[in-house]
UniProtKB/TrEMBL annotation:
Pfam families: HTH_18 (PF12833). Keywords: DNA-binding, Transcription, Transcription regulation. This is Helix-turn-helix transcriptional regulator. One of its GO terms (molecular function) is DNA-binding transcription factor activity. The keyword Cytoplasm does not apply. Signal peptide: none annotated. InterPro entries: Homeodomain-like_sf (IPR009057), HTH-like (IPR037923), HTH_AraC (IPR018060), Tscrpt_reg_AraC-type_HTH (IPR020449). The lineage of its organism: Bacteria, Pseudomonadati, Bacteroidota, Chitinophagia, Chitinophagales.
Amino acid sequence: MGARNLYTPFELLELNMEDWTPRPLIYHFFEIIHIQEGTGVRVVNGNRFPYRPGSVFIFTPRDCRGFEIAQPTRFVTVRFSELFLGKEYGAEERERITGWLKQLEYILFNHNKHQPVLVQRVNDCKMMASLIANMMEEYRNRHQYYENNLQHYLTLLLNLIARNVEAASAVREPDGEAPLISRLITWIQQHIYYPEQLKLETMAARFNISVNYIGEFFKKQTGESIQQYIICYKLRLVELRVENSRLTIGEIADELGFSDESHMSRLFKKYYGVSPAAYRKQKKEGGRQPE
């Protein structure tokens, strides 16, 4: 294939190879891979996992990834960076991009990225194939507004992936309802931007548990308190924002409900050893490897 520049804001490739065995490399972009034909092994961070037609892989920056082809394989790779995520054309566009980032976060936090997402619904398979075909057409022709169209297509693609991630990860009780601890964690993740919904009183009422028992139950099931879980989850979102968006540190603190920027920075430094600003600088100065 040869060396190429992989650091443009967006890149879409259709690859058809009988044999491709480069050493796994660490890349600095998000990537969605949709296997269309063939079988083999996807090497991810030193782990080996089989793939087949219909498999979808989601990768974040710094994942070490590679392929080992067993049968002739054709796949589409959608690669995008924070530059593509961060294009802003005013308040309305920024709101849409923020919502899109939240959708991406949902996928990253709820999917074991070392396993393929198997799209089970027939209609979703058809829709995904159609979306990817439309994205390829837009990307090839690059007519006016093609970047905006690609963002919309990618949002829809992420929605489909998220729906299948949720369906695949939902472990049910005999009565068809997800376990209480799973429902509690899902509630926290879905309402992480709404502090009022994360109060013990609110959650206890929502799940019909006493206020005194909910904290004890959560710690027994997870090994940490609810507040500790909320803080760690928020800081993981801070990490993702700092590394993959153009939001200022103050804007990130405000969006995630910290009392102020200094409060968030102190917590971040406590857990990560550096301030958010220093962390962002480190990531920007990190080396990049060509393919």
